[in-house]
């Protein structure tokens, strides 16, 4: 079982890319689980055709008894197992605790033993690398980290912070950085700036995703672009990146 944590600046497209990679890898015949680590609980929306999933924290808030796996794990497009951590009511409590609660509960219920995924994605909120949000890095959940960035200044600033956070845990045998996925915003000299970062960090660009209207078109229909049309060049690009991760 291979486990990846996907980090990057808020709004950079982590969930879109993660869901597309989940769909692509599952389409190759592998078992995939995607765990959304955001209080908004919207990581898996495009894998569930917009169906609202009960998050772990929502279930615990509404029920006295702990959930069964089928209460918090839903099978989405291409059979991807979808989980959402959720979080507290906005402004009340720590969202990072939702991640830790979810991880602990999945362990207690033996989720990985039951579903036996070949690959797990943790789609982590924004560029927060403290408390529960750093759990995929520091507690041995993820094997490797994928950083999603554009060539924009603040996206690269977040990418550097994430890289440094992972490096701080390197001596403890925790996750390492697999590489960067460049999610283009068509800013001037975009590839140049991203390559400067990856060269300095000693990591590689494992995927270069262009701006493509098809992604938004199918996202508006609550689908990944692979579900919308797997023959498109952008769909084939996601399959190529997925092949690297496998």
**Rg over alpha carbons:** 17 Å
Helix content: 40-55%
Shape: globular
Quaternary state of this entry equals single chain
Total beta strands: 8
Please specify the SSE layout and strand pairing.
Elements (H helix, E strand, L loop, with lengths): L1 E7 L5 H14 L4 E6 L18 H7 L6 H4 L1 E2 L5 E4 L10 H14 L2 H5 L3 E6 L10 H4 L5 E6 L3 H16 L7 E8 L6 H12 L3 E5 L3 H7 L5 H4 L4 H13 L1
Parallel strand pairs: 1-5, 1-6, 2-4, 2-5, 6-7, 7-8
Antiparallel strand pairs: 3-4
Helix pairs in contact: 1-11
Description:
The protein has 246 residues and is of the alpha/beta class. The chain has helices spanning 14-27, 56-62, 69-72, 95-108, 111-115, 135-138, 153-168, 190-201, 213-219, 225-228, 233-245, and strands at residues 2-8, 32-37, 74-75, 81-84, 119-124, 144-149, 176-183, 205-209. Strand 6, helix 7 and strand 7 form a beta-alpha-beta unit. It is built from 11 helices and 8 strands. The termini are close together. The mean pLDDT is 92. 48% of the residues are buried. It has an 8-stranded mixed beta sheet, sandwiched between helices. Helix 1 (14-27) crosses helix 11.
List keywords for this structure.
246 residues; eight-stranded mixed β-sheet; 41% helix; 18% strand; single chain; alpha/beta; globular
Quick synopsis:
This protein has 246 residues and is α/β, with parallel strands linked by helices. The chain has eleven helices and eight strands. The chain is 41% helix and 18% strand.
């Amino acid at each position: 079982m291979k486990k990846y944590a996907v980090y990057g600046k808020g709004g950079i497209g982590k969930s879109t890319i993660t869901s597309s990679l989940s769909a692509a890898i599952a389409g190759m015949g592998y078992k995939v689980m995607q765990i959304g680590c955001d209080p908004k609980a919207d990581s898996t929306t495009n894998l569930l055709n917009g169906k609202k999933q009960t998050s772990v924290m929502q279930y615990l808030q509404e029920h006295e008894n702990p959930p069964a796996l089928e209460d918090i794990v839903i099978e989405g497009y291409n059979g991807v197992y979808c989980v959402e951590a959720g979080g507290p009511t906005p402004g009340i409590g720590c969202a990072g605790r939702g991640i830790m609660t979810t991880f602990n509960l999945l362990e207690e219920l033996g989720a990985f033993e039951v579903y036996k995924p070949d690959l797990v994605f943790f789609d982590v909120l924004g560029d927060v690398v403290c408390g529960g949000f750093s759990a995929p890095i520091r507690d041995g959940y993820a094997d490797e980290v994928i950083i999603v960035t554009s060539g924009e200044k603040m996206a690269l600033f977040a990418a550097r912070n994430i890289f440094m956070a992972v490096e701080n845990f390197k001596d403890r045998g925790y996750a390492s950085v697999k590489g960067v996925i460049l999610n283009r915003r068509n800013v001037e000299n975009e590839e140049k700036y991203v390559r400067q970062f990856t060269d300095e960090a000693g990591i590689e660009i494992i995927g270069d995703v262009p701006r493509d209207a098809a992604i938004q078109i199918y996202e508006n229909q609550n689908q990944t672009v692979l579900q919308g049309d797997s023959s498109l060049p952008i769909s084939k690009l996601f399959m190529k990146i997925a092949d690297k991760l496998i």
